[in-house]
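Help!! Second protein's tokens look totally different from the first
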Amino acid sequence: MNNSREIVSSVISILPKAKRILENQKQITIQEKEGLGNIVTNVDIDMEKYLCDSLQSRYSEAQIIAEESADSCEVKNSSLKFVIDPLDGSTNFSNSWPHSIAIGVVGEDELIGGVIYDALQEKIYAAVKCEGVVEIDINDMENVKKVEKPQYPNGNIKKSVIAHDTPYGNEAFDTTVDVYSELVKEGASAKTVGPISLDVLKAALGAENRPHDYYDAVWHMEVRAWDLCASTAILRELGGDIIGKDGKPLSIDTLTNPRAKIAFFASGNEKLRDNIYNIYEKVAEKGNER
């Protein structure tokens, strides 16, 4: 899509007001959703409405795939899709932990861009296909810095910093516990801070661009498209990739499917990513034998 840069720039332009929505909430109300520990706040709802309305007013033909309205998602025969997580890390947000806004951009059946707002750092990270990634200070939108491709040197599980999180489904939870156990036995430093979009972003940026706050890899047994679409674009643009439970890169159908429950393994280092995936395969095989 020739206007990929223009579309991503349009997404970036709506984020300063989104920042104010996050900051101006005087009261947070919390409701539980399906799945253990899965919540939604009034801020999720308000933010989603603002983001969807803003993008729909600019691109009326686009399909909007957003977390809180996914069940009633309007299916359009559109070449342009926005995959939106209005507040990734709702539990984190309610406790002043890391949280983000993530918007993936799909055009002509390919991932053409991704934008993540890291709220606590007040930084926007944006990727445009074949044009790299930039970092923008949301308090000074003219302050744009090109993100250099990291080296991603660590290909071994031992001593790698590997992020994960707990899924909402019971079956995925059991697999998570087993994979986690095997990684720790292999000498990994396993962390869980979240949210997923930020975890993958930190793996994409690497030590060079995110000193003292990066991961060598990220894995998870059950997430949704809006958790991954934007961060996948950024990771791929910086030389890494995300594979699914079949060992293949996540397809555009998966990244735009509001009902898909996605297991993934992500890293800038292919060897490390595959080593983690191999552990998952062994765990899954044992599970099938039981």
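Here's the second one for comparison:
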Amino acid sequence: MVKDFFLNFIKVNINSVNQRIDNYLFKIIKILPKSKIYSLLRKGNIRVNKKRISHNYRLKINDIIRIPLINIKKKEIYIDKYIIDKFKKYIIYEDKYILAINKPYGISVHKGSKINLNIIDIYRSIYKNENFLELVHRIDKSTSGVLLISKNLNILRYLHKDFKENKIKKKYIALVHGIWPSNFKKIENYISRNRYISYITRNFNNGKLSKTLFSVNKYFNQYTLLDIIPLSGRNHQIRLQTSYLGYPIVGDNIYGNKKINYLFFKKFGIKRLFLHSYFLSFFHPFYKKNIKLCANLNNDFLLILSNLI
């Protein structure tokens, strides 16, 4: 469907102060490619306070951004009321600045080239009156558990800083194949991104140092339930390390064993990655206190555990 996309004039509020104009436009005009936005800036079609600006201009309070009429092909995303009502139930914490949910497995946190339905768009539909709603961090599509969303840019920046400095504590629970050795308590290795396959990181000889604490929660006949504390935040860190040690997470379709995952699914009828972020704590930058969040295990995870006993 071809529509006219016309924002006309936008007045910059406190939540957008000090953002680069290009990054700000990427967020509010998601249906345009970045190259088109850069072209509009370069030609002076997008102006701030009636003046041409470069792509790295930093926004100031009360700046007036002029955006021209743009003809585009817009693919509308309709989010059903049933989905909205369902995802309201996943909220485990909320205040004026922060929202936390118990993310279900099987749904991406943000939109991708082949993904329409995603967490951030769903909650933007729920919170239509919020001027700002952005992910604080990410969880794999296949993973469930605590996910933070910020309602304020300054809060977002503060929490991003704390994540980078490993001040935000997270705990996971995972079901792995095999009997985990009791002496595997702390794993340290290096992880770097595979340059050819963007979502896989598997080089253990160089890259960024990755540290994780493991402890056995419960042994089953052919499986082990683990409590896991990542001390660093590398991409796919827990999944990579458990697989590297020979005890892949049940249902891991990237780093696991396809044959044993298939046999597990055939026996129990539940197909998912059994990795769940059940705890997260952070220092609230506005209320100046520690917030501790817990996310209960999903019903299918609990069902599997009860069947393994």
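Reply: Different proteins will give different token patterns, so don't panic. Residues 1-6, 195-200 have pLDDT under 50 and may be disordered.
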